[in-house]
Every structure is written in structure tokens, then in C-alpha cells.
Specification:
Blueprint lengths: L1 H11 L10 H4 L2 H6 L8 H23 L3 E4 L4 H9 L7 H4 L15 E7 L1 H8 L4 H11 L4 E4 L6 E6 L5 E4 L5 E4 L68 H7 L16 E7 L2 E6 L5 H6 L4 H5 L6 H5 L2 E8 L4 E8 L2 E8 H9 L5 H5 L4
Parallel strand pairs: 3-5
Antiparallel strand pairs: 1-2, 2-4, 3-4, 5-6, 7-8, 7-9, 9-10, 10-11
Length: about 375
Amino acid sequence: MQQDYKSLEELSRVRLSKSFFMRDFLYSEIAASYMLVNMPEFPDLAIHAGRRLCEELLEPLQDTFGRIHIRSAYRSPEVNDFGNRNKLNCASNAANYGHHIWDYRDKNGHIGATACIVVPWLVDQIERGGSWQEMAWWIHDHLPYSSLYFFSRLAAFNIRWCESPERWIKSYAEPKGTLTAPGMSNHAGSHTALYPGFPRFVKPGHAVQTLGSPNVQASPAPNTQPKVAKQGKNQGHPVTAAVASVIAPSVLQKARNDNLHITAAMRGSGKIKYRAIQANHLWRKVNTHHSLENAIDGPKGAKALLSGKLEPQCSQYGEARFVLVWQEGASEGCVLTRRNGAFRLATLPVDELEVFDRTGGASEQVLGKLFA
């Protein structure tokens, strides 16, 4: 419990943007009421997603309309699942990955973060005869949001950042339903006439350098080319270019190794790590293999899983897309897939694989580039 407190204390001090710290997003009425710890399992990914949410959406809103109030933001899988099972206005974990659960990617493998906010300026505007639709169209015209969901009380709304924006707006407030979405006739173009009298847009300034901590360090700014941090005692681990859906071209050129040979660079002295990406589970961890040979060719290895022969794993978690295998202490690990009936293997630096593991997985789009 003391370790949880210290880790949470350090995490809460991480600065996400000029106005916001991680602490602003960790309070949960569910967690406080039912004595749950609302802490990310993968803090690096939560920080990365939260920083983009703050810098690209919340800061511009606050700069333009004045102080905003955070109603609900980050939820750990434990807190969200408790809220869902007890009908406390929480969607399922699967639906909230990449939304309120910042440290897990969504069903499409994308990083995202949602906050439910109240803008006092909008509350006053509605009392003067305005509407939530005005704010919705203003955000649609000015900010790179992924989704907005408006509620009746206090004109609160969910605002989501995502690395692959969906750009839709829905509402539980009257008039209920979908205001706009891609493909609708009202989606494109300027909507200035629909929010008369709104303040002039204050464009975001330069990003504030994130203040990390000895144990939890924020990710680098999105416009930088981060380096992979080597593991060490009390050292933070920034989100790397690989986690941001990019694998360096120099790595890609060296990755292919379709001979399925276990090379000397893949052998280390530590535990074997086995991670499966399946249709219904984006990052399934298995730590029971005792050798690389067993993890790849054994009866419960990667080839058996990719062939659809491993039960109950296949029926329970769905079709296997990729399996990642590496050994602690090695310099390289491997990614396996099955294409046109043939097994294919690519190698990646273990540092890259460890970053995937710390941040909750790798998307199929990222790994697919290894075999393009």
C-alpha cells in the first residue's frame, strides 16, 4: 500500500502541459467512495495520451474560454470495471480502452484519452439563451478532437484526443443523437454562423517541457524524435517512436528474417517473454515458456497459436495476428506472424519490445510494417 502511495504521488506530479498536471485527472469519485486505487498500469502511455489531450484540446479551450473544470478523466481498468459492473455510468473496459482508460489502446490499436469537462463560460452562455451545439461546432472548426459527447447537466461533455481522430459529435442532451460525423452533409466546411458572439480562438502556444520524476517520467513532446531509454533503477521510460506507430526505417531494413532461425543476438540469460496479439485481446502476456525454442516451436508456442491449433487460447481470445518473443538480456527479439500459410519472422531490438510491453502493446499497423 505504501508503494502504491509513493508511485501515485510521483505520478501526480508529472506536468502534462502549461496548466495541467497528472494529479488533475486522477481523482475518481468511484475510487474515493469504494477505496480503490486509480493508478495506471502503464504510466508512460497514460502520460503520453494525457499530454496530447491537454496540449491539443484542453489548453486551447482554457486559453479561449477561461478556466475549465475536470469532471472525470482517467480511470484504471479496475475502477472502470467496478463502475461498469455496479451501474455507475461507466462503459465496459473494452469500450473505454483509449478513452477514459488512457494506458490501453482502443480496439483499433490507437492511443487515446478522454476527459469529461465543464466550461463555466458555456454554462453562462446557455443561461443567456445559447446551446451546446454552438460549442460543439466551435470545437469542430478549431480543434483536432476525435469525439465529443454532450450531457444535460452543466453542459458537461466528453472530449477525446486520439492519434487517429474519428471526428464525430453526439449528445445525450436535447436534441439527442448525432450532430455530425464523417459522411454527413454538415461535416465539412466552416460553421462560423452557428456560434455567433463566441470569443476569438486563442491558438496554442509552444509546448511546455514536461517535468518528470525519478520513477515516472513523461513522454517527449510529440514533435521530437525520442530515444529509447535503457532500463535502470529509478529511471523513467519515455514513449518512443515505435509506440507512436512509427518504427525507424533503419530498424525496418534489418528486421526481416524469414528463415525462422534463432540467432545468437536473440539469446540472453533471463526470462522468456511471450506476447500475443489476438482478435479479442490486444496484448496477452504469457510467462511460462522456459526457452526460445519452446516459445516458438513448442506445443504451446507461437506457431501452434498462429496456426489456430492452440486451445482454449484461440477460441477464447480470437484469431492470433502476431506473437512477440524475446529473452531478457538479449539484444534482439522476434515478431512472428503467418501469411499465406507460411510462418514469417522479423527481429526487433529488445529495447523496442520492452517499450511495447511497458506501454500496453503494439498495434497491428505498427507490426504489419515489418512484413510489408
